[in-house]
Amino acid sequence: MKTTLLTSEDYTRSPWKNGGGIFTDIAGAHRTDAPVKDWSSLLWRFASTPIVAPGPFSYMPGIDRLQMVVAGRGLVLKAPGQEFDEREPFTTVRFAGELEIVTALEAGPVEVVNLMARRGAAEIALVALREPGERELAAGTHLVYAVSGDCGIRLNSEDFVIPGGCTLKVELTGAAGLAFVSGLAVLASIQLVG
Predict the structure, then answer these.
(1) Nearest alpha-carbon partner for 126 in 56, 26, 55, 39
(2) 85: burial class by Cβ within 10 Å (0-12, 13-18, 19+)?
(3) What is the mean pLDDT of the chain?
(4) Vertex 9, ends 144 and 90: CA angle to 5°?
(5) Confidence at 164, pLDDT banded by 50, 70, 90
(6) Which residue has the higher pLDDT, 36 or 146?
(7) By its UniProt entry, which Pfam families does this protein fall under (predicted)?
(8) What is the C-alpha to C-alpha distance for residues 120 and 154, in angstroms, rounded to an integer?
(9) Which of 29, 68, 179, 194 has a beta carbon 3.0–4.6 Å from 43's, enabling a disulfide?
(10) Secondary structure of residue 39 in the 3-state scheme
(11) Is 41 helix (H, G, I), strand (E, B) or coil?
(12) How many CA atoms lie within 13 A of 123 on its CB side?
C-alpha cells in the first residue's frame, strides 16, 4: 500500500475541453507511451470545477464520466431524451462523454467533482463518504478527497487525517479495508483494465 497526501499545491489547473471553464486537476494518468499528455492519451482524471452558468458540456468521445455536486444544489444535466438529476448534493451520475449535454442550474452556481476514464481502459466508481462505516477497497488507485474540513479514515488499522480540500491517494496492489471515521469526503476508485 502506498499513500500520498495531495494538497492544493499539487493540483494543477486546465481549461475545459470546450474552453467554457477551468478544471482543478487533482489526480490523473495518461498512457505511458504518449508523447504528449492530452485528451487523446488520457487514461483517467479526477478533477473539481465550478459550474457558474448554464451551458454545454465538452464533447468527449470514448470517455466515461461520473459526476457529483459537492457544493450548492439544483444541477440538472439535460441530454436528448434524458436527464441526469444532481439536484441533491452527493448524488453520483454516470454518462458517456459523447452525449450532447447542457446544464440547468435551478439554484445558482455549484461545485462538482468529475471522475473520467477512457472507455475500456479503466473501471471507475465515485461515492460520498458521509457516515462512519467500513468498506473493502480493491486493488487499484483510490482517492479520498476531503470536501470541507478535515476528515478521518483508517486504512488497514493505520489512521489518517486528511485536511480539508486535500486528497489522500491510495495505491493498492491487493484489497484493503477502509474505515471512514469522521468528516465529509468523496471516494474515487480507479481500476485499470489489463
Answers:
(1) 26
(2) exposed
(3) 94
(4) 30
(5) very high
(6) 146
(7) HutD (PF05962)
(8) 31
(9) 29
(10) helix
(11) helix
(12) 6
The per-residue b/e assignment along 125-146, b for 16 or more CB within 10 angstroms, e otherwise, is bbebbeeeeeeebeebbbbbbb
C-alpha cell at position 31: 498512457
Closest CA to 128 of 109, 146, 116, 111: 146
Residue type, 127: V
C-alpha cell of 145? 478527497
Asked if residues 43 and 31 have their Cβ atoms less than 8 Å apart, the reply is yes
In percent, the amount of the chain with pLDDT more than 70 equals 100
Distances from the Cα of 70 to the Cα of 6, 51, 52, 188, angstroms: 18, 11, 14, 13
* Residue-range domains of the chain with CATH: 10-120 (2.60.120.10), 124-192 (2.60.120.10)
* CA dist., res. 60 & res. 179, Å (int): 35
Share of the chain above pLDDT 90, in %: 82
Task: Give the cell for residue 8.
Answer: 492544493
| Residue with the three cell numbers 483510490 | 142
Cα separation, 145 vs 10, in Å, equals 13
Cell of 67: 459526476
Helix (H, G, I), strand (E, B) or coil at 60: coil
What does pTM read for this prediction? 0.94
Residue 189 grid coordinates: 476508485
The pLDDT value recorded for residue 39 is 76
**194 CB-near residues (< 8 Å, 6+ apart):** none
